Structures are given as structure tokens and as C-alpha cells.
Amino acid sequence: MYSLAEENYLKAIYHLEQEAKGEVSTNAIADRMATKPSSVTDMIQKLADKKLLSYKRYKGALLTPEGRKIAAGVIRKHRLWEVFLVEKLDFHWDEVHEIAEQLEHVHSEKLISRLDQFLGNPDFDPHGDPIPDKHGNIKRTEKKLLSELDKKQRGVCVGVKESSSDFLQYLDKKKITIGTKILVLGKEFFDGSMVIQVGRDQFFISKKIAENLYVQTN
Amino acid sequence: MYSLAEENYLKAIYHLEQEAKGEVSTNAIADRMATKPSSVTDMIQKLADKKLLSYKRYKGALLTPEGRKIAAGVIRKHRLWEVFLVEKLDFHWDEVHEIAEQLEHVHSEKLISRLDQFLGNPDFDPHGDPIPDKHGNIKRTEKKLLSELDKKQRGVCVGVKESSSDFLQYLDKKKITIGTKILVLGKEFFDGSMVIQVGRDQFFISKKIAENLYVQTN
DNA sequence: ACCTATTTTTCGTCTTGGCTAAAAATATTA
DNA sequence: TAATATTTTTAGCCAAGACGAAAAATAGGT
Description:
The first copy, chain A, is α+β, with helices and mostly antiparallel strands and 218 residues long. Chain A has 8 helices and 8 strands. The interface between A and B is medium-sized, with 19 and 19 residues.
């Protein structure tokens, strides 16, 4: 059984590995966890002793398969609880993160498998992020950023890159959610802005919006 | 926001106050929490500083209204989560305690009020214990021990005193659960044993069983 | 290659919540 | 009431996880 602090470090390192592909630096971990580099060094040495990651002084950290499995387990729990909060307790998708941060540390294999079943074995969380299975494997989809689409292409919203409250509320206002179909009506190459169609509405979106919305094209 | 340790102390003291009516001794708290008296002294001094309980050296502890409110809040969460586990995730009532011990420390007012609503605002947990409302008030029922009933009296099972796994499994085997109607067919004054009727079955129960089963008579 | 800036680590310290051993207060019993 | 037993507190210590300051290693620029 791993401590809350250990689980949070593993999770953060897991995410940083995905984003950066390769060793994760002490500073990067400190930034993401809002802690100090010296604290990070302490902890990654401890996690290295426990064989959850490999670490050479000054060279950054890389999760071992065991460490990765534990991190994926925490992320699995986090995302399942988010589904629960949104689907069953009618929370809005921009208010579930903090609560899931707490729920993800409840230890019970049986609880999480029952929860998974209760929710209908969902593959994605309310933000469109994939939920690892009990072995830590993730079903990856071919998703791209809306900004990568060209004029007249269609896509289905499957997630967001940024998930700040402001951004999620913007999407809500525009009636964009997971599963929403989007058609690109026009694209301005000068500033990357677009005009898109959502349902019967047509409107303008900035490059910044388009670069933070994942869509699936089929 | 109170720490996990603080919440657990408050909860333990709350329960001991109910059972013993009056100041709670250092040793009693240490026993219940499987910790040492010296640790208890440290913590109750800390809680007294925070005005969550009143404490005079060598005289035991008594919760303040504020401390009692917090304790009741933790118990409310514990019991609501137990209902969730049994009603929604099909857990057996003898396996939910440990999980609820973890879930009860998740902090979110909104979560717990939504959960309450989702569960249909239950008044009792799966063991028949009352669930405090959001203000910490408990709806007490006139429950008595089965052992207090006389021959030919009827009662409805509303809870258990002991909730050991062995006992709960015994009840399960005998098809006794919350809401089960019980008729006392005979009572032996020599050893306190009884013959009771449950549904179409009639069987013998020992004094020990009868003293650990709460019933409501009406 | 050298000097400087940045990153990372080490070291000593802090807080929380435990513990043991010993001292102090209270309770009990002769 | 005096002696003893029990309970409670105090004091010093430990581990986890965080911090800042200073030292060490690496990276960059010339």
C-alpha cells in the first residue's frame, strides 16, 4: 500500500512522461506538484529504493513497469470517480476534479471494480480522457486537435487539452460537450481562427480554443 | 478543514460520549483507537486548543457543540457511504465499514448533499444506525434489544449492537436483515435463550444473539 | 576550454502524529 | 490515613514529508 504522497508523485510523473516522452526532470515534477525541487529529490530517491522508478543523480526519473501500473491505477480511480460524479450525482464536468483528487486515494480493489461495473464500464471520463483498465492499459483513440482540421472537415468532440474552469464554462455556453459534432466552415490562416458549426449555431472561435479541443474524425 | 487524525479522534470521542454519558477518559480513547494514552493526551490538548472539546488535566474530555458538529458530520458521511456501497454497489453489509472509514474523510459539502439526495435521503445505514442530518441532528428511534421482548411479542429488526463479521454473517444465514419481522415464540428465563419465528422458519437463538439485535416494537 | 547560469542534490530544520519511559496525579484498599 | 495501584501527563525521540540555504553537477555561451 502506497501513501498519498507517493501516489501523487507517481501520478504526476506518469503524466509528465506522457507529455514529454522521456526522463522527467526534478524541476518539472516540482512545478506540477507545486512543491520544491529539494522535496522532489527526496521523494524520487525513496521511490527509486522501492523500485517504482529508475533514477540516476542529475538525470531525471523514469517509471518502472511497476510504478507505471500503480500510477495508472490511481488515474483509473480518478477518472471513474469523475464519471460517477457527473453521471450519477449530476455534477458539472468542471467541478469534479478536486473531489476526484481525494476519492482516487481510497484503497479497495473491490470498490473500484464494482464502481466500474455500476457505471457501465466507461472507456472515457467526462473530459474525454481514457480510463485505464484494471491492468493499467489505456485504450488510445485517434484524436486530434480541432485546430488541425481544415475547412469542411467534420469531427466529434472527444476531450479537452486544457481543462481550466474558464475554458470548460466557455464550452458549456457554446453547447459543446463530449460527443458534440463540429463542422469547420472556415479557417483563417493568418491567425488560425475558425468559423464552425455546432448543431444549428455557427460561430467564430479563436486559435486558442481550437488548439485545446480534441476531436475524432472518422 | 480538519486533518484525518483529528476527525478520527472526534468521531471516537463522540461515540464514547454516547455510550458512557459523560467525560471520556484518555484510556478509553486510546483503547478504541488502538493507540497509546500518551498520544491521546497530545491530541486532546490540541483539540482543546482548537475549542473542539473541553479538557481539564486528569479529568477527561467532552466535545464542545462545534466538536460534536464535526464528529456528527464525519459519521453522517460514513453512514451515507455505507448506504451507497450496499444499495448501489451491492456490497454486503459486513464488508462496508473499512471502505467507509476512508470515504468519510473526503471533504466536499456538495458531494455529500448530492450523495444524500442520490440515495433518497436515507435515515438509517445498513446496520440500522441513524444518519445525522446536515446539522448533525440524529433522528433517534425507540429501539430495544430483542432480549428485552417477552413471549408472543413482535418486533422489527432495526439494527445490531455488535457488528462483527461473524455476527452479521450469522444473521444473513438466518435471513435476518433490517426490516425483518421477528416473533418471540418462547423465552427461557434460565439462560435467556429464545425460540423465534422469522418468516416461516422457527429456530432457537442464544441470549448472546438476542442481546445484540435491536428491534422496534409498535 | 573556461566562465557563468541553471538545475539538482545535500544538509539541517520544521510540523504532524505517533512511541517509550518516567514522573505526577488520582483512586483504591488495607 | 497511609500505602499501593492505576491512570494520566510530561519529556524526549522517531518517521514522513515538506522547506530553505548552500554545495555540487551539468549546460550554455564565448
